[in-house]
Design a protein that fits this description.
Number of helices: 1
Number of strands: 13
CATH class of the largest domain: Mainly Beta
CATH architecture of the largest domain: Sandwich
Number of domains: 2
Structural class: mainly beta
Helix content: under 10%
Strand order of the largest sheet: 4-3-7-1-9-12-11
């Protein structure tokens, strides 16, 4: 994805977070940030702020992009892995915090799952570019404004509860 910052800003941060639901304890869910590239260079994310409330764990990380290099446009690639019980939480939401340009979304999943991606406030639809039994790739070419994004629904085939 591309993140656009104002030339007049002294600080321009890229913030990302994820929220996962659990039944009894936060040890039921796992999250890894596998890779974070900013302009093609490996970057170590700052340790996230963790908040646990109402059987949900939220991890939030924030990086000051202008501290890395003072410019207006940044290319960001993030790869993460989430492990959780689909019966507890089968939805992933994404809302942009900054103006974002162009997103590629790659989803690996078990063959027994179906994946449904819905736009959330964006003008255009996301385009399905690759579709196999274990992998989906969607792209959005254009501007995504703050609070716009997507919703992903996972369904386990022949499973009533996730409908």
């Amino acid at each position: 994805m591309s993140v656009i910052c104002s030339a007049n800003q002294k600080n321009c941060s890229f913030e990302f977070s994820n929220t996962m639901s659990f039944t009894t304890t936060e040890t039921e869910v796992e999250y890894w940030l596998n890779n974070l590239l900013i302009d093609g260079r490996q970057h170590n994310a700052i340790a996230p702020t963790v908040n646990i409330n109402n059987n949900q764990i939220t991890r939030t990380s924030k990086i000051n992009l202008k501290a890395i290099e003072d410019k207006d446009l940044y290319q960001i690639e993030r790869k993460e892995t989430r492990k959780y019980d689909i019966e507890t939480d089968n939805v992933i939401y994404y809302r942009a915090v900054k103006i974002t340009n162009n997103i590629t979304l790659a989803i690996e999943h078990p063959a027994s799952f179906t994946v449904d991606l819905k736009k959330c406030g964006t003008i255009k639809d996301f385009e399905l570019r690759r579709n196999t039994a274990l992998f989906k790739e969607y792209t959005y070419n254009g501007i995504i404004y703050p609070q716009q994004g997507y919703i992903i629904l996972f369904k386990k085939e022949n499973h009533e509860k996730c409908n």
